[in-house]
Amino acid sequence: MFDKFWSLVSLDIGIDLGTVNTLVLIKDKGIVIREPSVVALHRKSKQIVAIGTEAKRMLGRTPFAIEAIRPLRGGVISDFDCTEAMLKAFIHKVHQTGNRRSFKIPKPRVVVGIPSGVTEVERRAVQDAVLSAGARACYLIEEPMAAAIGAGLPVEDPEGNLIVDIGGGTTEIAVISMGGAVIIKSLRVAGDEMDQDIVNYMKMRYGMLIGEKTAENVKIEIGSAYPLKIEKETVVRGRDLATGLPKSLKISSTEIREALMGTINQMIGALNDVLEQTPPELISDILERGIVVAGGGALLRGLDKKIADETKMPVYIADDPLTTVVRGCGKVLENLDLLSKIKVTGGLR
Ligand code: ADP
Ligand code: MG
Fold first, then answer.
1. What is d(CA 145, CA 134) in angstroms, rounded to the nearest whole number?
2. What is the pTM of this model?
3. Which residue owns the Cα nearest ligand 1 atom 26?
4. Residue 252: pLDDT above 60?
């Protein structure tokens, strides 16, 4: 009875600290925060003005005195202080209900999924930030492991699982077996690079300047990795480089696919490298089970077909790929046994 009471009032929190999006989940409750990993601050005083959704609205639109930054842009923590402020703000947001009560709520246990390219020093910084935000314990798991767990792969089995997580800043590829990554590769090429490809394409082909946000919208609207049954079109708005005047153009999905192909081929090249290094026993497991793709990049039309074509392996897109990592963190909170079986850093303060 008492245990039940505590499990009702204590908060166990899972966090997906992504390069584009940060998601927060409360055990037994589900996802409570889904916001962009963006911080807006005063250029001079470095004082934080906004975090998350509110800060993202300011990206590329800020007056000179304010800058909006993405502290994890390349899959490494480029700005410690901002990452810390962001984590604290999100943790306080979900924990604040507790602080208002008269009795003291036990401090939360937190599991954070982080890009695998994050260095030892940066890991410690994330942990310190989480602990100083009031957590009782903080465990870090690498994103591909969290994604594999979130996708329901049997990571503890002595069999091979191949997970690809395509986020904004990084593509993470891992072969997981017996609770650990046998091979792990983090490529600094993913969704952001695709947006950049579209910006470059519009500039080179049409002499037109478009913003990153516009490029991302075009990618989501008509982007693809494999020929579509019915090709799509959309109108793109930007500025003519020659005249400096606003310009709008109709663009086809075929053109956008051509623009994205270099980046997609780089990702597939990395995947093939991993497959080449994978021990034969594990390859045969993967051939049987297929490659699982998670992360927002998995939503690109036809990416599964393209990867299947190039690797000759079956490919599956994880359910709701944008939430796979945070749901994986949630599963770890539900089954703390898993924590002792998979490779994690951290623990009690
Ligand atoms: P991260 O884990 O790095 O925060 P996410 O897994 O949240 O990244 O994925 C964000 C990336 O997914 C962005 O680059 C975004 O443009 C891309 N994305 C989201 N939806 C789609 C879609 N429908 N088609 C293609 N890319 C998408
Ligand atoms: Mg991610």
1. 25
2. 0.92
3. 297
4. yes
The helix/strand/coil state of 103 is coil
Give the burial string for 253-287 (b: 16+ CB within 10 Å, else e).
bebbbebbeebbeebbebbeebbeebeeebbebbb
Best mutation site among 219, 256, 325, 326 for ligand 1 pocket (most ligand atoms within 8 Å of CB) = 219
Whole-angstrom Cα distance, residue 226 to residue 153? 26
Q: Mind spelling out the 3-state secondary structure of 142-177? A: EHHHHHHHHCCCCCCCCCCEEEEEECCCCEEEEEEE
The ligand 1 atom nearest the CA atom of 22: 4
Ligand nearest to the CA of 297: 1
Residues having CB closer than 6 A to ligand 1 are 18-21, 167-169, 191-192, 216, 219-220, 223, 295-297, 299-300, 322
80 Cα: distance to centroid of ligand 2 (angstroms): 18
Rounded to an integer, what is the distance from CA 77 to the centroid of its chain?
A: 13
Among the ranges given (74-88, 184-198, 224-238, 276-290), the one the predictor scored with the smallest mean pLDDT? 74-88
Between residues 31 and 132, the one the model is more confident about? 31
Q: Which of 156, 70, 173, 162 is nearest to 115 (CA)?
A: 173
Matching residue, tokens 């993202």: 56
User: For residues 128 and 138, what is the distance between their CA atoms, to the nearest angstrom?
Assistant: 9
Q: How many CB atoms lie within 10 A of CB 242?
A: 9
Q: What's the gap in Å between 347 CA and the centre of ligand 1?
A: 30
Q: Give the pLDDT band of residue 345 (cuts 50, 70, 90).
A: low
Q: C-alpha dihedral over 10, 39, 69, 239, to 10 degrees?
A: 120
CA 318 to chain centroid, in Å, comes to 14
Average pLDDT over residues 330-342: 86
